[in-house]
Design goal:
Elements: H1 4-17, H2 39-52, E1 71-74, E2 77-80, E3 97-99, E4 107-108, E5 121-123, E6 131-132, E7 145-147, E8 166-168, E9 190-192, E10 215-217, E11 236-238, E12 246-247, E13 260-262, E14 270-271, E15 284-286, E16 307-309, E17 337-339, E18 364-365
Parallel strand pairs: 2-3, 3-5, 4-6, 5-7, 7-8, 8-9, 9-10, 10-11, 11-13, 12-14, 13-15, 15-16, 16-17, 17-18
Antiparallel strand pairs: 1-2
């Protein structure tokens, strides 16, 4: 069982991830969920939990645990980096966070994690792992976070623990995601798999079957369109830095729960009229660094949209009704960010009433057209 403090924290996070249109949208940086920058925060959380918990006193082990050679161990956190070529064999059985990043590990063997049934998070980023034994993760019955980025994986690891909630496998060599690749992972909430040479044809039908994800990122890949059959439960979908050329009417029809959509740094020239109608709760839309000639149709009807990135496109004209609805009371929230810089727009030709549903004039960014 997890300590009471961890259960309380996870309950709070779950509540925060539930989309609620009545709440104001808190804008975050575009890459805040995209990288591994929160590993340090994860370690701090684990240590604070062990040092500061007054809810449940931890039992003292009968025998003093040994720390693997070359590692540092403190309150169920084991850190080993910079020199290992294999997973250490003598990791304490009560370890909750195992950090093996920045090593020279090339494979995960069947018994590498034997006895670590209490492990909560495993960090394997920045190694040279290309082989994973099918039963390597079998002992990790309570693991919730697996950070596997910057390795040499060519496929999604098999038999991942059913308890897993967060998987980060970006910057590997994965080209194909077969049907059932994430089978039985009904607790999975977040998958980060950008930076892999994935094409649309690399996703087999049923690749995400059974998942109820909140967050998915497939950026910096080789997608030419929005992938089909992604989980309908998604709140955030990031497909930036691909080769997507257009958004067709049915591309977004499954994802009515989205409140954040990232499509920046693509080749999008056209967004078919009506495409955005399927996203009634969208709050943040990134379409920067594309090839749009016009403001996408449908923005005034999006009642909760607050942030729109349209900079670095080919937009030359802004009409008075491109952003705001005609009637009063139609829009539930005001815009707090519209970026239009690096477009061939003469800002003095734009009528002030165009931004009548923007919270503050400082929220509008025109800037200069790129040279």
């Amino acid at each position: 069982m997890l300590p009471h403090s961890v259960l309380l924290l996870l309950l709070c996070v779950t509540r925060l991830l539930t989309p609620c249109p009545a709440l104001p949208f808190e804008q975050k940086g575009f890459w805040d969920f995209g990288m591994d920058s929160d590993i340090g925060e994860l370690m701090k959380m684990m240590r604070d939990e062990e040092e500061g918990s007054a809810v449940e006193e931890l039992p003292h082990p009968k025998h003093e645990s040994t720390c693997p050679f070359g590692c540092q161990c403190h309150l169920r956190v084991v850190q080993c980096s910079d020199c290992l070529t294999a997973v250490p064999y003598d990791i304490p059985s009560d370890t909750r966070l195992l950090d093996l990043q920045n090593n020279y590990i090339t494979e995960l063997r069947e018994n590498d994690f034997k006895g670590l049934s209490n492990l909560y998070a495993l960090v394997l980023r920045n190694n040279q792992i290309s082989r994973v034994h099918p039963r390597a993760f079998a002992p990790l019955q309570r693991m919730q976070k697996l950070y596997f980025s910057h390795n040499h994986l060519t496929a999604v690891p098999k038999n991942l623990p059913a308890s897993l909630e967060e998987l980060r496998i970006h910057d590997n060599h994965i080209r194909k995601v077969p049907e059932g690749a994430f089978g039985n992972l009904r607790n999975m909430n977040c998958i980060e798999m950008g930076g892999n040479p994935l094409q649309n044809s690399g996703f087999e039908p049923g690749a995400f079957k059974g998942l109820k994800l909140s967050y998915l990122r497939i950026s910096e890949a080789k997608l030419t369109g929005v992938p089909k059959d992604l989980p309908e439960s998604l709140n955030e979908l990031h497909l930036d830095h691909n080769q997507i050329q257009a958004i067709e009417l049915e591309d977004l029809s499954r994802y009515r729960n989205l409140y954040r959509l990232g499509l920046g740094f693509n080749h999008i020239r056209n967004i078919e009229a009506g495409s955005l109608h399927y996203l009634p709760y969208l709050r943040e839309l990134h379409l920067d660094n594309n090839r749009l000639n016009n403001v996408p149709a449908g923005l005034p009807e999006m009642k909760y949209l607050q942030v729109v990135y349209l900079h670095a496109n080919n937009i030359s004209r802004i009409d008075i009704n491109d952003f705001c609805p005609l009637g009063f009371g139609m829009k539930r929230t005001f815009y707090n960010g519209i970026s239009l810089f690096s477009n061939p727009i003469n800002y003095w030709e734009v009528q002030p009433a165009t931004f009548r549903c923007v919270s503050d004039s400082l929220a509008i960014q025109f800037g200069n057209n790129r040279k």
